[in-house]
Amino acid sequence: MLLGSDEYLEEFKKRLNADDEYERLAKNVKDSYTLFVQAEPDKGIQNDLIVGFTIENGKLTDVWRGERKTSFVLSAPYGVYVDILTGKINVNKAFITRKLKIKGSLPKLLKTAKATERLVDVLRSIPTEFEGEYAERSFS
User: Fold this and answer.
1) Structural domain boundaries in the chain
2) What is the pLDDT of residue 10?
3) What is the DSSP code (8-state) at residue 98?
4) Which numeric CATH code is attached to 6-127?
5) Are strands 49-56 and 101-103 parallel, antiparallel or unpaired?
6) Do strands 72-77 and 30-38 pair parallel, antiparallel, or not at all (unpaired)?
7) How far apart are CA 22 and CA 136, in angstroms?
8) Coil, strand or helix: which one is 63?
């Protein structure tokens, strides 16, 4: 499934809501997130990708494409998201090293570090197709 496609987002919602461990780790989370995946034209990624989602009490209640006002905005070049999804860099380390830039409260976000890591684990279970020079790092 192409990263960020409607099919991908639906699968993300289905898998995350079926994950008991994520629900336990995020049981007190009531926040919304925008992921801003920045284009890298020199690497074959021509357009920005913007997706968002809302987590309430360990469940993903809404997922969308495009911009909305959210509790957190996480932005990075496409390749950083590929590195996170393929395990080259830990998501929380990406926050701390500012490879993944945050608008919103970093301390609040880091309080849910284990839930965030589990969310990425769930994303890694989805067969993912990347574009441009990153296509060779796609996985199933």
Assistant:
1) 6-127
2) 97
3) T
4) 3.30.1050.10
5) unpaired
6) parallel
7) 29
8) strand
State the virtual CA torsion across 82, 103, 91, 131 in degrees, nearest 10.
-10
Q: How far apart are CA 128 and CA 130, in angstroms?
A: 6
Mean pLDDT of the chain: 97
Q: Is the CB of residue 36 less than 8 Å from the CB of residue 74?
A: yes
The model's pTM = 0.96
What sections of 44-136 are H helices per DSSP? 78-85, 91-96, 106-111, 113-124
Beta bridge mates, 55: 31, 60
d(CA 41, CA 48): 10
- For residue 64, CA distances in Å to 104, 124, 140 come to 19, 19, 23
pLDDT digit string, tens, across residues 89-103: 999 999 999 999 999
Q: What is the DSSP string of 35-61?
A: EEEE-BGGGTB-S-EEEEEEEETTEEE
Q: pLDDT (tens digit, 9 = 90+) per residue, 35-52? A: 999 999 999 999 999 999
Write down the pLDDT at residue 129. Answer: 98
CB 103 within 8 A of CB 96: no
